[in-house]
Design brief:
The chain has 2 domains: 93 residues, Sandwich (Immunoglobulin-like); 103 residues, Immunoglobulin-like (Sandwich). It has 2 helices and 17 strands. The strands form 4 sheets. Strands 1-17-16-10-13 form a 5-stranded mixed β-sheet, with no helix packed on it. A 4-stranded mixed β-sheet has the order 5-2-8-9. Strands 4-3-6-7 form a 4-stranded antiparallel β-sheet, with no helix packed on it. The two termini are 30 Å apart. The relative contact order is 0.26. This is Lipoprotein. Keywords: Lipoprotein, Membrane, Signal, Transmembrane, Transmembrane helix. InterPro entries: DUF4397 (IPR025510).
C-alpha cells in the first residue's frame, strides 16, 4: 500500500488531547523519585481507544496513527487498559496489570498488531544519546502484521530483513530523504514512498503499523529533539517540551491529577518496560 506521506507527530504533539485525571495515589511524587519519560504510539488500525491507568481514564479517543507525549512518570507499576471510546473499564479490549516503568529511561509504548494480527502492547527504549554535528538518528521499528521488510532511503536499503517486533537504528547525515519499505530482498513497495525530514540533532523513529493482509500498512513517525552534541543542545528527549517546563508542569499537577500517556506498541505480558 503506497502512502503519499508519513504521518508525523513530534513527541508532545498530542498533549492537548490528554485528560487530567485526579488520581491521588499516583500524584504523590517526591522530588527525589526516579522519573521516566514515556511516549505513546497507537498502531492498531481502525480502533480509536480510551486509555485507563490504575482505573482512571487518562486519554480519550486516542486515534490510530497518533503519537502522544512524552510525559514524566514516576518509577513504579501501573495497570493499563484500553477500551473503545466511551466504553467502561470492564469492557477493556486490551489490558496489562502491574506494568513496571523504570526511572531514568525514555521509552515508547506502542499498541499494535502482532504477527498474527492480534492486538498487543510493546515497549521500546529510546536512544537519546547525543548525535554528532550535522547528523540525525533514524530508528525503524517493525510493529505491523507483515513479513520482514527492508527500509530504504533514496532507494538504497538502510535496514534489511527487519522482522516483527525488531528495530534497527543508524546515525545519518541530516536532511530530507525519500523513504519507503519493501518486502525483504525484493523491490515490492509496501509502505511509502514519502519524503522524510531528518533534522539535525533529532531522532526520528519510524513504526511500521497495520496489516499486510488487510492492505492497511503504513508508517508513523515519532520525533525526539534536543540530541545535539554542541553545548547549546539540550538532550532531554522531551520532543519539543524541553523549553516549556514539562518537568515543572508535572510537579504543579501533582496535587490535582496525572497526565499519563499509553497507546500503542510494548508487551501485553507484565514484563519490564525497559529493554534494549
Amino acid at each position: 500500500m503506497r502512502l503519499s506521506h508519513f504521518p508525523r507527530m513530534a513527541a508532545g504533539g498530542m498533549i492537548t488531547a490528554l485528560t487530567i485525571a485526579g488520581v491521588g495515589a499516583l500524584t504523590a511524587t517526591p522530588a527525589y523519585a526516579a522519573m521516566a519519560e514515556v511516549s505513546a504510539v497507537h498502531g492498531i488500525p481502525n480502533t480509536p481507544v480510551d486509555v485507563y491507568v490504575n482505573g482512571e481514564k487518562t486519554l480519550e479517543n486516542f486515534a490510530p496513527g497518533a503519537v502522544a507525549g512524552p510525559m514524566n512518570l514516576e518509577e513504579g507499576a501501573y495497570d493499563i487498559a484500553l477500551t473503545k471510546p466511551g466504553e467502561p473499564l470492564a469492557n477493556a479490549i486490551l489490558k496489562v496489570d502491574d506494568k513496571d516503568v523504570l526511572g531514568g529511561t525514555n521509552i515508547s509504548i506502542v499498541a499494535h498488531l502482532d504477527a498474527n494480527a492480534q492486538p498487543k502492547i510493546t515497549s521500546f527504549a529510546n536512544d537519546t544519546s547525543k548525535v554528532d554535528a550535522g547528523k540525525a538518528r533514524l530508528i525503524a521499528r517493525h510493529t505491523a502484521a507483515a513479513p520482514a521488510v527492508d527500509m530504504r532511503a533514496d532507494g538504497t536499503p538502510l535496514f534489511e530483513s527487519l522482522t516483527h517486533s525488531a528495530e534497527a537504528k543508524a546515525d545519518v547525515i541530516a536532511g530530507t530523504v525519500m523513504a519507503d519499505a519493501v518486502l525483504a530482498g525484493t523491490g515490492t513497495v509496501v509502505i511509502g514512498p514519502a519524503d522524510l525530514e531528518l533534522a539535525e540533532g533529532t531522532a526520528t523513529i519510524l513504526y511500521a503499523i497495520g496489516s499486510a493482509d488487510a492492505g492497511n500498512l503504513q508508517a508513523v513517525a515519532q520525533t525526539i529533539t534536543g540530541l545535539h552534541s554542541a553545548p547549546a543542545g539540550v538532550p532531554s528527549g522531551d520532543g519539543g517540551l524541553a523549553g516549556t517546563g514539562a518537568h515543572t508542569w508535572w510537579y504543579l499537577l501533582a496535587g490535582a491529577g496525572i497526565l499519563l500517556l499509553i497507546g500503542g506498541g510494548t508487551r501485553v505480558a507484565t514484563d519490564r518496560v525497559y529493554r534494549r
